[in-house]
Amino acid sequence: MSATSVPSSTSATSVPAASRGPRPSLVIVGAGPRGTGLLERIAANAPELYAGSQLAGTGLDVHLVDPFPPGGGRIWREEQSPLLWMNSQAQDVTMFTDDSVAMTGPVGEGPTLHEWAGLDGRVFAGRRRQGAYLRWVYERTVAALPEGVRVHHHPRRAVRVEGPRGGRQQVWLEGRPRPLAADLVVLTLGHLDAEPDDEQRRLAAYADAHGLVHLPPDFTADSDLSALAPGEPVLVRGFGLAFVDLMVLLTEGRGGRYETGPDGGLTYLPSGREPVLHVGSRRGVPYHSKIGYDWTGERPPLPRFFGPAEVDALLALPDGPDFRRDVWPLVEKELGFAHYHRLFAAHPGRTAMAWTDFEEKYAAAGTAEVAALVASAVPDPADRLDLTALDHPLDGVRHPSYDALQDGLRAYVEGDLARRHDPAHSPDLAVFLGLLSVYGQLVRLGDIGPWWHGFFSYLASGPPGPRLHQLLALSRAGVLRFLGAGMEVSAADGVFRATSATVPGEYVEARALVEARLPHPTVERTRDALLRALHAEGAGTTPEGLLAVDPADGRVLDRSGTPHPRRFALGPHTDARGSGAFTRPRTGGPAFRQNDATARAVLAFLRDLSCRAAA
């Protein structure tokens, strides 16, 4: 007999006669992919840590607290625009572990999104389809839980957690007069809304005073875009994935459509209801396109220069590691190794040295020597990895006007699309694999600052190629205009004004401004009442404002660094955040490893608690 999922109104009053005291209770706050992934690991580990124990006789209540449906949660709910896609190919999305994950618990194999949905693995599925997959994973997981485990979904928000360190916790829900009793609480909250920072408050106040439109950082699918009027200019700050959603909803979402010409090129046919989007950012270019070819041949043996031993050494530094001084040189060498391993293996005609000689010299070289070695071994500068140039693609680029900039930016995007879909540039894919490897190691270091996460997303988590083809069509149609790099926004003379370093001395004015990016997940500025209360009562945070957790099992740390015995947290609001929403098959999956460790700690705690109660 499997576990049951019961509505929140059902009370667990039937207690086995063999039990003593209340049924064990676990509260998971957040029922999206992370909460579902934790539940899957609980089901996988239960036969070892649950079956045959006193806990099996007393049963277990698992309470999932989330105003949105279990599985997809808020971001991946099935009730959203059908125009919005996933940002990963269907073959690269799985909720199930494999033997590449370094974890203690058993592997729990299951289908990827494309296997489950019967899709071409290269398709970028709609978010509705992903929501359906997550709902199925949740339902399958509930069915796999042991007999006596009841899963209750409470479609409410949790507002605070109370209780002594040594006793049961009380989880208060919005609009519910009595708290949920919990032996353990796990926060799997996902992405968070945030209060505006000082700049956003100033811009919002100016907009209110002058009748302007200001949309702060938000989840684009949840933003009210109705105030952005047809034909009116809109300044957009941010060129990542939030912008892509905005672009889709304000064009196709307002009735526009694309036509494919005889040459395969796209033409955008406006509906007349679109605003004109003037978009810029710090880099001034969109995130790099997803790579459009598959890997062939030998993979670079990773990790090579940034693995567990190097992380151990960094963690042993008396004052902790500094990212730029201590971590980045190792990351740079690791990514370079992945790049050149692929170049020498797959494109030897573009090298001037035997791989064995290069590898030996590369391993011994310091940062300064690497550049000289590469220059002697790789004749074409285009084949050399320059991470600084990648991070600042428009440095030194200047145009006399915004009109002149448009052709230049279109050429940049076209070049990026061509390169990312040409296997002649397969070292790019090797660097992508290196980025995944590096991220798996960096998780152990905790808060490393915001720069790395943005750099990773820019290189490895950009939009599908078809979205950039659409962006180009919108640019040619005049619906989208580029502003360039170093974008700055001011408010004066009753309007918003944007400038950029790419077009010095020029500016663009508009009565609407959209901050096309997600809120930064700081505990201090979150709108989540539960996290704010935890912080006020002493939960530890990092310099970046993330919730501090024990890297071993996700227990919440207080400001002295002491783990709370009954409170855990997983996800992007913590300093153990991973590289993305989902894991690619056979890539080691740090999130899987974390979920497994937390699930085992939860089950062991409940088992031991039950045994003590029965003694």
Q: In words, what does this structure look like?
A:
The chain is built from 17 helices and 20 strands. A hairpin with a 5-residue loop joins strand 11 (257-260) and strand 12 (266-269). The radius of gyration is 26 Å and the shape is globular. The chain folds into 3 domains: 4-8 and 21-193 and 521-614, FAD/NAD(P)-binding domain, CATH 3.50.50; 198-220 and 230-287 and 463-513, FAD/NAD(P)-binding domain (3-Layer(bba) Sandwich), CATH 3.50.50; 308-460, no CATH class. The longest helix has 25 residues, at 590-614. Helices cover 35% and strands 15% of the residues. It is α/β, with parallel strands linked by helices and 615 residues long. It has helices at 33-49, 54-58, 113-117, 127-144, 198-210, 241-250, 308-315, 323-346, 355-364, 367-377, 387-391, 402-420, 427-442, 451-460, 465-477, 529-536, 590-614; strands at residues 4-7, 25-29, 60-65, 149-154, 158-162, 169-173, 180-182, 184-187, 213-215, 233-237, 257-260, 266-269, 276-280, 480-484, 488-492, 495-499, 508-510, 512-515, 555-557, 563-569. The strands form 5 sheets. Strands 1-4-3-2-8-20-19 form a 7-stranded mixed beta sheet. A 5-stranded parallel beta sheet has the order 9-18-10-13-14. A 3-stranded antiparallel beta sheet has the order 5-6-7. The model is unreliable at 8-19 (pLDDT under 50). Helix 1 packs parallel to helix 4 and helix 12 (402-420) packs antiparallel against helix 15 (465-477). Residues 1-26, 561-592 are annotated as: Disordered. Pfam families: NAD_binding_9. This is FAD/NAD(P)-binding protein. InterPro entries: FAD/NAD-bd_sf, HpyO/CreE_NAD-binding, L-asp_N-monooxygenase_NS-form. Residues 1-19 have a biased composition (Low complexity).
